[in-house]
Sequence to fold (217 residues):
Amino acid sequence: IPITVGAWNVRTLLDKDDANRPERRTALVAKELSRYKVDIAALSETRFAEEGQLRELKAGYTFFWSGRGKDERRESGVGFAIKNDLIGKLTSLPKGVNDRLMTLTLQLKGKRYATIVSCYAPTMTNPDDIKDKFYEELDTIIASTPKQDKLVVLGDFNARVGSDVEAWDEVIGKHGVGSCNSNGLLLLRLCAEHHLSVTNTLFQLPIRNKTTWMHSR
Fold:
């Protein structure tokens, strides 16, 4: 049975005390995932503290997250929203590495497995040492994934990988957008080292569907 995966920067899953809505943000997110028939979504910028899980019974998804400590500023945060009927196929519950990385392993047919990574990379304004630390940790996760596993890395990389297919022909396709920035270069180097492809550059799509956000510059 095919499994549909996706990534979504939800901006926050925190509910304000004075929010004038009858449903939690997690319930609203779950409804949208159900509408688009997404089985597993990697969530970024969740802003939940520490690690935890929450089941939305009506919408049919369970949320798992990994964030900063309770006493720290509520920024970043990653997680997964997984359809409840897939929970039993997980070899274990999703594991939080830190507030920017979380992994899960899903059993496929037979003795085959898929490792899925949820990422939220530092923005361009973060210091270089923060960016380097993120990519070093992601590199460790990828390198430790069994070679026979299917590997899917999802998330918000706050990066532009550009369209220089001649320089990065084994990483990006013919449908990239614009030029590469420094964050994009970090992502491209990681992908090249581990023989990964930036899949959204492989398909001919309208510009609005090729990017999730574009700077006004």
Remarks:
- The chain has one domain: 5-158.
- The first helix runs from residue 25 to 35.
